[in-house]
Amino acid sequence: MQLKLISSNIRYENENDGVHSWENRSPLLQKIITEFHPDILATQEGREKQIKSLAYLIPLKLIESHREWIEERMYPCLYVNEEQIKVKRSGDIWLSETPLTPGSFSFKSTFPRLCTWMEVTHLVNNLDYFIVNTHLDHVLEETRLEQINVLIREIDKLNQQKLPLILMGDFNDSPASAVYQSILNALDLKDPWIESGFVEETSHHGFLENADQGDRIDWILIPQAFAVEDIYLEKKSFNGVFPSDHYPLLATVIPR
Description:
CATH architecture: 4-Layer Sandwich
CATH class: Alpha Beta
Number of domains: 1
Structural class: alpha+beta
CATH superfamily: Endonuclease/exonuclease/phosphatase
Strand content: 25-35%
């Protein structure tokens, strides 16, 4: 009955990252993903080439049939374990005033931002869920609030059956923010981290060992009825190399 989830900002492929180049990091991310064996993986920030290179490394299917890729854009993506998850439909929503226009952006956003979504059947219990993965702008809270308003409005149109919703991503904001509260109130979700009574800690470390400055900006939010079995930030590094400049967030939840 359990559902295993990972949300991870994988950091864009940057030739200036030195020892933390994607070439060095991707096998480490592969190891973490493969060992946890998630049913659903949500990634943020990669471009098409990088995203597809990860798909070759892991035993999960990249959900992309709905998408016409734009080379310079960074995308939130969803991958699934096909033994556990059947995808019924999927799509992208650009978090702008024209959400169906690829590459569009508004609200003083630094870059075009979007969410990707899918309606799935969990083959273990034959229940359907609506899964959303997003990456909000990193500069202005007012921008993120507008982007979340677009996400909430468009998801409401798509999820007409009111299926249980799981929202994952890099929100570039803290759990003390108006963005966080707006999401929980509008979508009636809860935060497994808070549910578990854990102390707040940073999820973006910038490739620094023992980073303690910053907020938990990476979230997995689940329906109120779901139980939480486990949730944690994976802080492993390998000879000083991290799989990303964010700690991957791993959760095991139990649908009810």
